């Protein structure tokens, strides 16, 4: 009985190691992906990468109103927050493919 248990444990450990290797590979690949998001009907468009870095931002000149700078600032914040949310969503979706839907603590991703 003990011997059969050891075989099961070894098999489980191999599966865990394989999953860990797949997760590391996926994490590296996700860092290279980008998403584009907009705010204000396209007034602000930005690209965020998988490392949660803002790569580019485009502002429609029509959105630049010297009398209402606060609105432009709000649009930028909204677009950045949406970009970060989408990166998190993409990462969680891709990781769940590797983990079989098991939710892992934040430090393990």
Automatic annotation (TrEMBL):
Keywords: Coiled coil, DNA-binding
Alphabetical list of InterPro entries matching this protein: Bacteriocin_signal_seq, YbaB-like_sf, YbaB/EbfC
Taxonomic lineage: unclassified sequences, metagenomes, ecological metagenomes
Name of protein: Nucleoid-associated protein
Any GO molecular function: DNA binding
Gene Ontology CC terms: cytosol
Gene3D superfamilies tied to this protein: Nucleoid-associated protein YbaB-like domain
Entry-linked SUPFAM superfamilies: YbaB-like (SSF82607)
Organism: bioreactor metagenome
Coiled coil: 9-36
């Amino acid at each position: 009985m003990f011997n059969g248990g050891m075989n099961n444990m070894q098999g489980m450990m191999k599966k865990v190691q394989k999953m860990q290797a797949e997760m590391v590979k996926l994490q590296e690949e996700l860092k290279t992906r980008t998403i584009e998001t907009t705010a204000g009907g396209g007034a602000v468009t930005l690209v965020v990468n998988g490392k949660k870095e803002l790569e580019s931002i485009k502002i429609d000149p029509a959105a630049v109103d010297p009398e209402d700078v606060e609105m432009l600032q709000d649009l930028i914040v909204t677009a950045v927050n949406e970009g970060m949310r989408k990166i998190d969503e993409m990462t969680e979706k891709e990781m769940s493919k590797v983990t079989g839907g098991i939710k892992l603590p934040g430090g393990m991703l």
